[in-house]
Design a protein that fits this description.
CATH topology of the largest domain: Arc Repressor Mutant, subunit A
Structural class: mainly alpha
Shape: globular
Helix content: 55-70%
Number of strands: 0
Strand content: under 5%
CATH class of the largest domain: Mainly Alpha
Order of helices and strands: HHHHHHH
Number of domains: 2
Largest sheet: none
CATH architecture of the largest domain: Orthogonal Bundle
Number of helices: 7
Radius of gyration: 18 Å
């Protein structure tokens, strides 16, 4: 159980970003942990235990994504001060918090929303590798292993995802600010 505890938060974070909401992520995570416990005798040690858990979680996420198209948006509450990782409030909604420059906070929030929206618009196969590489910071070799493709294919898919993100962000910023961004 210590192995699972050491990796479950990172795996949940990845599943949360892939699924787009806490409810699906919790379901996927529960299925992942149950499957990991049931299949622990099949863990061969070829890769780290964390990578093995990622593999199980990705397979379950892919299965769910194939059954249901993702159309949900994040609730606004997740972006409000005092929100916890699951989107709920800590019970102290009206507590004072460290006030930052409102313009900076607004811009950072807007930028995060733009990036999240662009990420969610990527086709699943590109979103998957983009998040694994740039959010989870996995190596190309680990991504190739997790997605069951060659390293060359993984590199190509990561590049295509990055280029698609660049194009979507450039289009968004051009529309938002009225000028081309290089």
């Amino acid at each position: 159980m210590k192995l699972v505890d050491a990796h479950k938060d990172k795996v949940f974070g990845m599943v949360r970003r892939l699924s787009g909401n806490n409810q699906d992520a919790e379901d996927i995570m529960q299925d992942t942990l149950v499957k990991a416990i049931d299949k622990i005798d099949q863990f061969r040690g070829d890769a780290s235990f964390g990578t093995w858990l990622y593999t199980i979680a990705l397979n379950i996420t892919r299965g769910q994504f194939a059954r249901k198209k993702q159309t949900e948006l994040k609730p606004i509450e997740e972006y409000l001060p005092g929100a916890t990782a699951d989107g709920n409030h800590s019970g102290d909604e009206f507590a004072l918090f460290d006030w930052k420059d409102p313009h900076t906070v607004l811009e950072a929030g807007r930028l995060r929303d733009i990036i999240d929206k662009a990420t969610n618009e990527l086709p699943f196969k590109y979103r998957e590798v983009f998040l694994l590489r740039y959010v989870e910071e996995l190596s190309v070799k680990e991504i190739a292993r997790l997605t069951k493709q060659t390293e060359a294919s993984a590199k190509s898919r990561i590049l295509r995802a990055r280029l698609a993100m660049r194009d979507m962000l450039a289009t968004t910023f051009e529309a938002e600010y009225g000028k081309k961004v290089s």
